[in-house]
Amino acid sequence: MNTDNQEIARLEEALDTLTGLPSCLADPSEEGLHEVLEEVSRRLQDNLPYPHPLYAGQMMKAPHRIARLAYMLALWTNPNNHSHEGGRASTAMEKEAVAALAAMFNWQTHIGHLCSGGTIANLEALWIAAKLRPGTGVLASAAAHYSHRRACELLQLDFHAVATDARGTMDLVNLERHLADGRTGTVVVTLGTTALGALDPLPAILALREQYDFRVHVDAAYGGYFTLVGELPVEARACFDALAQVDSITIDPHKHGLQPYGCGCVLFRDPALAPLYHHQAPYAYFTTDALHLGEISLECSRPGATAVALWATQRLLPLVRGGRFSRDLARSLQAAAALYAHLDTDPRFLTLTQPQLDIVVWAPRGVCASSISARSHALFEATAAAGLHLALVSLPAGLLQEYWREVEFDTPTVTCLRSCLMKPEHADWLERICCILDSVADAATV
Ligand SMILES: Cc1ncc(COP(=O)(O)O)c(C=O)c1O
Fold this sequence. Notes:
- The chain has 446 residues and is α/β, with parallel strands linked by helices.
- The protein folds into two domains: 75-316, Type I PLP-dependent aspartate aminotransferase-like (Major domain) (Aspartate Aminotransferase, domain 2, 3-Layer(aba) Sandwich); 324-444, Aspartate Aminotransferase, domain 1 (Alpha-Beta Complex), CATH 3.90.1150.10.
- The chain is 40% helix and 13% strand.
- The protein has 15 helices and eleven strands.
- It has helices at residues 3-17, 33-44, 65-75, 88-104, 118-132, 146-155, 172-179, 202-212, 234-241, 304-316, 324-344, 369-385, 397-401, 425-428, 430-440; strands spanning 111-115, 137-141, 159-162, 184-190, 215-219, 248-251, 264-268, 349-351, 359-364, 391-396, 413-420.
């Protein structure tokens, strides 16, 4: 039996345990089902090999088998975690899974829930922040995810981008200049930027909070789980340890938490914020006095299956330092450090700074920015043709000038190669990845 068949057999066993429920199929006939499913299979072949270690492009990581199985199992009842009456078991599982995420950040108290992803989690955090600080604006670094600026547009909040330093992290001098006008209610700190995986200096930003009194929302959608890695560099450790003092956090289990898409999470440290969600819903919340998750969530219907999958994954792989889950994250960091070291010694490539997490950005050497961009595109195509899938990223010349002093910057931005080494298997496949890069590097000479 191959592994996929074993997985289906496990699902069948689990379904036998899920007894006592009426069949959920209104029409049990199978007419046309097989053909349509075959068609779906054929159509799905038009994809890149996302779960394979030679896919090293965007932030994509296959869900763990337990997440996939638990999710599918939950679909047999298809609970809705808006309220207890929509999903009793899955509501309890969501509360437990979210509490484990809050505990991972050493929070003694929290409210929070799952949502569709980092974008909605950020929107919700800024929505609540705006209620607490009416009439004030939001600051985030120029490298923050675009969802913050967009959320501010939706919420009609003033948004300003703080300049970044050479490592792509929030520049403290520029931040303080913005804070000085007294109009900032919330600073968004990113722990793990989307492009570079850079960590904004959270401890220093918290120190400024003493003087300027703002809320701190941390976007740890991608980077948050790295707090579990035991041996982080001192600076990164300090950033993650400081999470215990922030007001709200976004973390995406569908990035590094081994979940299928549609699993983000927003956390607030102060449970007393719950009344800010107050709304009229005379048709809901009637079965119990215990908290219904819809009472503290921006969205109404939410998939209980998402909570079940996350709960099951955390049960199998608890969120503890030194555990199996954290050791796998450490392997991603090792893979990124090793790829960086390899590229840094190859004169055909230009590198930036040592990666802080598991994203590596580099470019083929060229005399000017435009030729570097053209070569990055060529290398991107050549590696894909050789079976290695990378991503591209456009970076401001100002950031790269610090590193590439001999390059003539004839364009305001430069296209570089970007690789998210998010799978633990990337560490085992690194030799092969480097081998492919070596073999196609010359093809990038255009
Ligand atoms: C730092 C950060 N925040 C937020 C998001 C948005 O998350 P989602 O795509 O789940 O909406 C991303 C996505 O890559 C991200 O990297």
